[in-house]
C-alpha cells in the first residue's frame, strides 16, 4: 500500500490526488536530469508498475478506484513531462503539475472513456495516462511557444 498511496500521500484527507501528484515531482525531475535518454523506458516501467500496484491495492481494499490510490497520478505526471527537455525549469514543472491536475480532474473525452471502460489496475491508471498525454502536448506547445 506504500506505493499505491504514493508514499502515503494518498491518505491525505484533503485532495489526495493533488498530493499524490506532488509526490511524483522529485522522481520525475531526478530521472529527467540523471538519464533523459532512458526517460521513455522509465515511463513504460512506471505505467506497468502502476497498473500492477493499483490492481493489487483495489483487491486489498475491496473498492473500485479508491481515492487513496494515487500511483495513477504519479504515472500521469511522469507522462506529462515526457515532451520537455531535460534542462527543465521550476516553472515548467509547476505548469506541468497544474495542467495535469486540470486534465485529471475535468476528465473530458478520451480521459473519461478510459476511466469508464477499463477495470482493475488498468481502469485506475489509464485515464491518468491519457490526462498525462494531453498535458504533455499542451506543455510542449507552451515550451515551443517560448513561454517556458
From TrEMBL:
Stored InterPro entries: PgpA, PgpA-like_sf, YutG/PgpA
BP term (GO), one: phosphatidylglycerol biosynthetic process
This protein's name: Phosphatidylglycerophosphatase A
Residues spanning the membrane: 20-53, 74-100, 120-143
Pfam families in alphabetical order: PgpA
Molecular function via GO: phosphatidylglycerophosphatase activity
Cell inner membrane is among the record's keywords: no
Residue ranges of every copy of the YutG/PgpA domain listed in the record: 3-142
Keyword Iron: no
Keywords: Membrane, Transmembrane, Transmembrane helix
